């Protein structure tokens, strides 16, 4: 019996990233009330706009609770992991230009896309490179609800891994 080819799901090696490429991450993530309340209380954020329905319902212009923006940011980046950085990232180097032009509400679905904006080999860490991303989050209507720039340290392809397969 011949040996089966095995392909391990992973993110991209440094060499596989191309500036200008846009990745659409699917599926999206529908945000529930439980998600918002759990994240908000877990992170000790006592903002009534996330926790108190009566308070939020009385406030214009939204008249409902808002999804915690840090949950929105975390989920936006998280939606990109399987496709881009699963098992290949060394770590996040920083976030900048984080903007939330519209809120998310309970029941909204967050869709993510990421553009590779830059990459360069690390000057101080052999076998690793720096990849810059522009993340965009949209709700189910296509409205932009979050954007962020992120720099990551990513591993280069190991010499023994030439096709992403294990034999």
Automatic annotation (TrEMBL):
<feature type="domain" description="MaoC-like">
    <location>
        <begin position="19"/>
        <end position="132"/>
    </location>
</feature>
<feature type="compositionally biased region" description="Basic and acidic residues">
    <location>
        <begin position="116"/>
        <end position="126"/>
    </location>
</feature>
<dbReference type="InterPro" id="IPR052342">
    <property type="entry name" value="MCH/BMMD"/>
</dbReference>
<feature type="region of interest" description="Disordered">
    <location>
        <begin position="116"/>
        <end position="167"/>
    </location>
</feature>
<dbReference type="InterPro" id="IPR002539">
    <property type="entry name" value="MaoC-like_dom"/>
</dbReference>
<dbReference type="InterPro" id="IPR029069">
    <property type="entry name" value="HotDog_dom_sf"/>
</dbReference>
<feature type="compositionally biased region" description="Basic and acidic residues">
    <location>
        <begin position="157"/>
        <end position="167"/>
    </location>
</feature>
<dbReference type="Pfam" id="PF01575">
    <property type="entry name" value="MaoC_dehydratas"/>
</dbReference>
<protein>
    <submittedName>
        <fullName>MaoC family dehydratase</fullName>
    </submittedName>
</protein>
<comment type="similarity">
    <text>Belongs to the enoyl-CoA hydratase/isomerase family.</text>
</comment>
């Amino acid at each position: 019996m011949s040996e089966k080819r095995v392909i391990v799901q992973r993110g991209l090696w440094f060499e596989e990233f191309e500036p200008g490429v846009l990745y659409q991450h699917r599926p999206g993530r529908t945000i529930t009330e439980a998600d918002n309340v759990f994240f908000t209380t877990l992170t000790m954020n006592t903002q009534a706009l996330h926790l108190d329905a009566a308070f939020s319902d009385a406030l214009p212009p939204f008249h409902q609770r808002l999804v915690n923006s840090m949950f929105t940011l975390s989920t936006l980046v998280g939606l990109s992991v399987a496709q881009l950085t699963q098992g290949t990232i060394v770590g996040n180097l920083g976030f900048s230009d984080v903007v939330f032009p519209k809120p998310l509400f309970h029941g909204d679905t967050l869709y993510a896309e990421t553009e590779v904006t830059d990459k360069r080999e690390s000057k101080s860490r052999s076998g690793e490179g720096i990849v810059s991303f522009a993340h965009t989050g949209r709700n189910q209507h296509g409205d932009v609800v979050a954007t962020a720039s992120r720099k990551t340290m990513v591993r280069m392809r190991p010499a023994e891994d030439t096709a992403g397969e294990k034999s």
